[in-house]
Design brief:
heterodimer; A: 385 residues; mainly alpha; B: 308 residues; two-stranded antiparallel sheet; 11 helices; 2 strands; globular
């Protein structure tokens, strides 16, 4: 049973080991070696990993590039932020407002009543449902309208980019309803549990890693089943798949919805860990950056894309603090280089140098033969894939 | 719109309509270059906005050089600067095509990403060279001021100039495409690349020249832009989504479509911006375009040409 599942999920042993090393890294090494401030940052980067997994399926496997994943990330994030904001604006703590009990930015914008759109977000159950459902439904409408008319390629990229722009501008322009450019800030508690304490940040980090792991497994499952092979077939020879009787539009719509749903979950986890949501996180530039993470890590590999999120974001934080002028050159240059010379990203390095993977496999075999007498002192990390 | 009298409404309509014409000119010039490149090779150039900014910075440099070395030349420098903007952007375009784009023709989506990387690099380069603050070239006196048509209705001269400029560029592009031997080769390549190669057209050269001309027109758009706004490192990226939508909504590779959709989008945005505060006008316009594209993805004037 276990063997069958793992055979479906992982092509070969190297992949399974790479996954294990990754889990070891994020579950043990990072929490033990990093101060909570850094670990919280890693958690924030990992919440973009959800978007990256979706993009691997949608773009890497199915050949549909969406430049608007920020829209779905934002939808999930705003759903979560609305719930937290309502909880933070109970009548006691907002007693100084002219209308107590509504979020502070609404009061500043002379709203005297909670808008109808906000009312259902009083319920935690509804919020959880909305985080998953709202991005999926919107993605279904967009995907179904476009894929059924056989819109793909560059057109789809431009239209989704425009959608991300519309969404961020729309939020920006409706200050009373959405918090406008400042976003939804001052989020405090989740069902009475203070999310700003160190303890909560550790817990949320592990929740994020756990959900990301499940999402990665789901992604790998789709890739390695028949659906995954249909996806690749659609990418490479759309017409032949259509002539073989597959409903290409439906398959694409499904993957687009799945990617949107994952992005929404990522957005919600982002809000929980960072404590705010604003249009600057979901506009055109962040949406393209999400594609960059995926491209740098590897558009075909689930694990590669997650690592891409970690590496690019870590680089961004480190370099943009130390050399703000050089950072954009570096990022732009890296991106051009990756697209031109390593279209399958860092993950393809593992394919280019298969001996690294083989060496790990033989190492583990030898270890098993020798029993537990030897431990490798250091595990190579660079070859994950 | 309830609080306005009919006459006021008419006046607002004229004024906003005219300011829409300036936006129309910039969008049209941006869109023409994009449509040329997109129609020719199915490539979307995400750095197109940065080529526009380069054109604007060229005008700024020309203005500074003129003030420093040849003040007497002041009234005429602008015309030379437009030409310089075209040439510099075209040269950079040819270089980019040679270094980057030609290696990616079989991967159009990757071209989009690579050119976005280029746009990051160019934006930062502008920031390092010209500073993060927005700059404005000194415009010659004859571009200032406005015609007063009647009480309360002023038509700024720079707007008229920009409109005239885009009319000239559009005409030149149409002549170039439909009356020159190069245009003939280009249209042949778009229709059937393999056959064109077989009859002796150097399609790689055609691609490079088309890309260069497209970027050059973006440079002219930048020059035109300096007369109606100031230039910053990210000026170009502010127009890029609109310009994409102009091309896509018009029906890719159709000059008539680009013209019509640039006009529609610019007018809608400009008039709606007056009645709806803030960004709502823009949101409404973009939303209408996107919904339109969902219903009719081939755009206003779809090209009748079959795929390559």
């Amino acid at each position: 049973m276990f063997q069958r599942i793992s055979q479906t999920l992982f092509k070969n042993r190297t992949e399974a080991i790479a996954f294990g090393v990754f889990l070891l890294l994020v579950l043990v090494v990072f929490p033990l070696t990093m101060p909570i401030f850094r670990l919280n940052l890693v958690g924030k980067y990992l919440s973009f990993g959800f978007v990256a997994i979706g993009l691997v399926l949608l773009w890497g496997r199915c050949g549909v590039l969406s430049l608007g994943q920020g829209l779905f990330f934002g939808l999930g994030g705003y759903c979560m932020a609305m719930f937290l904001k309502l909880e933070a604006s109970d009548p006691e703590s907002t007693a100084i407002q002219s209308t107590p009990g509504i979020p502070d930015f609404m009061d500043w914008n002379q709203l005297t009543e909670l808008p109808a759109m906000w009312k259902p977000f009083d319920s935690f159950g509804f919020t959880l449902f909305a985080i998953v459902a709202v991005p999926s439904i919107i993605a279904f409408i967009i995907g179904w309208a476009l894929f059924r008319r056989r819109v793909g390629g560059v057109y789809f990229a431009i239209i989704t980019q425009a959608l991300a722009l519309i969404f961020s501008l729309g939020i920006d322009g409706n200050q009373g309803l959405t918090g406008g450019r400042n976003g939804i800030t001052d989020l405090k508690t989740l069902l009475g549990w203070d999310i700003r304490t160190e303890n909560a940040q550790y817990t949320l980090y592990f929740v994020c890693v756990g959900l990301l792991f499940l999402a990665a497994l789901a992604g790998k499952y789709i890739i390695n089943t028949r659906l995954g092979r249909v996806l690749v077939a659609i990418r490479d020879q759309e017409d032949r798949v259509r002539f073989s009787g597959y409903d290409v539009a439906m398959v694409r719509t499904f993957v687009f919805c799945f990617a949107a749903m994952l992005s929404g979950i990522g957005g919600a986890l982002f809000v929980l860990q960072v404590g705010f949501m604003s249009p600057s996180i979901i506009g055109i530039i962040p949406s393209i950056e999400m594609v960059i993470f995926t491209a740098v890590g590897g558009r075909l590999s689930v694990l590669g894309a997650i690592l891409g999120c970690l590496i690019v974001n870590w680089g961004k934080t480190t370099f943009s603090e130390a050399y703000p002028d050089l950072w954009l050159y570096l990022m732009g240059g890296t991106f051009i280089a990756v697209v031109m010379f390593f279209p399958n990203g860092l993950a393809s390095l593992a394919d280019k140098f298969p001996w690294i993977g083989e060496r790990i496999v033989s190492l583990t075999k030898r270890l098993r033969r020798n029993g537990n007498s030897q431990h490798p002192t250091e595990t190579p990390v660079t070859d994950e894939h | 719109m309830g609080d306005y009298t009919a006459e006021e409404l008419q006046m607002i309509f004229y004024m906003q309509g005219f300011s829409g014409l300036s936006l129309f000119s910039v969008l049209l010039l941006m869109g023409l270059g994009l449509a040329l490149i997109f129609g020719q090779m199915g490539v979307i150039n995400m750095a197109h906005g940065e080529f526009m900014a380069l054109g604007a910075y060229t005008v700024y440099l020309c203005s500074n050089l003129t003030e420093k070395f040849a003040p007497a030349f002041g009234p005429y420098y602008f015309l030379v600067a437009i030409l310089a903007a075209f040439l510099i952007c075209a040269a950079l375009g040819a270089l980019v095509e040679w270094l980057m784009i030609r290696h990616l023709y079989h991967r159009p989506l990757d071209t989009l990403l690579a050119t976005w990387g280029l746009s990051l690099v160019l934006q930062q380069a502008y920031r390092s060279i010209f500073g993060a603050r927005e700059v404005t070239p000194t415009l010659p006196d004859w571009l200032m001021g406005s015609f007063n048509l009647k009480e309360g209705l002023d038509i700024p001269i720079n707007g008229v100039f920009v409109l005239g400029l885009s009319a000239v560029v559009t005409t030149a592009l149409i002549l170039f495409l439909y009356r020159s031997s190069f245009g003939l080769k280009l249209r042949a390549t778009v229709q059937n690349r393999k056959m064109s190669g077989a009859v002796g057209i150097n399609t790689a050269r055609v691609d490079r020249l088309a890309f260069a001309v497209g970027c050059g027109i973006a440079g002219i758009a930048g020059a035109a832009f300096t007369t109606i706004g100031s230039t910053g490192p990210d000026s170009g990226s502010r127009y890029i989504v609109d310009a994409f939508l102009v091309v896509v909504a018009g029906g890719a590779a159709s000059l008539l479509g680009t013209l019509a959709s640039a006009f529609g989008i610019a007018q809608a945005q400009s008039i709606l911006e007056f009645f709806l505060e803030g960004t709502k006008g823009k949101v409404a316009t973009l939303l209408v375009i996107v919904i339109g594209l969902m219903i009719r993805p081939q755009g206003l004037f779809p090209s009748k040409v079959r795929g390559h």
